[in-house]
Amino acid sequence: MVYQGLALITGLSFILYGMSCLTTQQMINEFDRFNLSKWRILVGYLQIMGGAGLLIGLFLNTTLVIFSAGGLSLLMFMGFITRLYIKDGFIKSSPAFIFMLVNAIIVFGFWDITFGI
């Protein structure tokens, strides 16, 4: 039940954050600051698809949750590394790090639920 709750909250968060990435001036400015503006739209869609995969997977197929959380964990790892690279420091980088860990926890939790290993 804990893993399902994490997947639900994380899925909703990534859908909203992905929409923000596609539409808000703040996110346009952030990606310009990262010197990654050409990747903003792709990142936004990946976040929306990953979040939707978490939510849909909760009801249809737990393997979808595993792949979605794994992809989001990788995306957040890259975001964390990017923030460190541009010298934002650990505190400003911590949301990406925390979401990376939460998604990794979801992967391992649903792996156990799905495959029992």
Automatic annotation (TrEMBL):
Keywords: Membrane, Transmembrane, Transmembrane helix. InterPro entries: DoxX. It comes from the Bacteria. The keyword Transmembrane applies. It holds the Pfam family DoxX_2. GO terms for cellular component: membrane. It is a multi-pass membrane protein. The chain crosses the membrane at residues 6-22, 42-60, 66-86, 93-111. It is found in: Membrane. This is DoxX-like protein. It comes from Leeuwenhoekiella aequorea.
